Amino acid sequence: MDSFLIALLVNNHFGVLTRVTSLFSRRGYNIASLSVGETETPEYSRITIETRTDSMAVRQIVRQLEKLEDVKAVSLLPGAETVARELLIVKLVIPPVKHAALLESLKGFDCRIPYDVEGRLVLEFSGSPPQCEDFLKTLSEYTILELCRTGATAVSIIGELKQ
Question: Which residues of the chain have pLDDT under 50?
């Protein structure tokens, strides 16, 4: 199975997200990640969905999404021409003897440490999905108390998602 990013421009009102996600569940498609927010025009929201399936199924998903009344535009984002980012917030327990080693291992990442008190750290990292995976691998030897991950938000560097 391959991973695909689908961008949607939708009317910004209640129930739209439910109708979009219901389409996935009714047809047995899984949503790997979902990101939603208002656009530069408050009457529209942008939804970015990552799904893992085959190319034939993703084409069917796009066709079904295009039929929804509140969906104004749908685009399958091309991998090479897409800028995608995720946000990770990770809470760790770190013994004092490992603190310096952790900070050293994080030097290759542009992460922030908004909280570092008495053996607990909160790390904030933003990057491409593969960079996020690498960041999490670096943290795998430490005790992760909580992990929050936004899922991919993406734009294509070619074309625009317009109604």
Answer: none
pTM as predicted:
0.85
Are 88 and 132 a contacting pair, CB within 8 Å?
Answer: yes
71 contacts: CB under 8 Å, gap ≥ 6: 8, 9, 10, 20, 65
Q: State the amino acid at position 23 in one-letter form.
A: L
Own/partner long-range contacts of 45-48 (Cβ < 8 Å, ≥24 apart): 45/9, 45/10, 45/11, 45/12, 45/16, 46/7, 46/8, 46/9, 46/10, 46/161, 47/7, 47/8, 47/10, 47/17, 47/20, 48/5, 48/6, 48/7, 48/8, 48/77, 48/151, 48/152, 48/153, 48/154
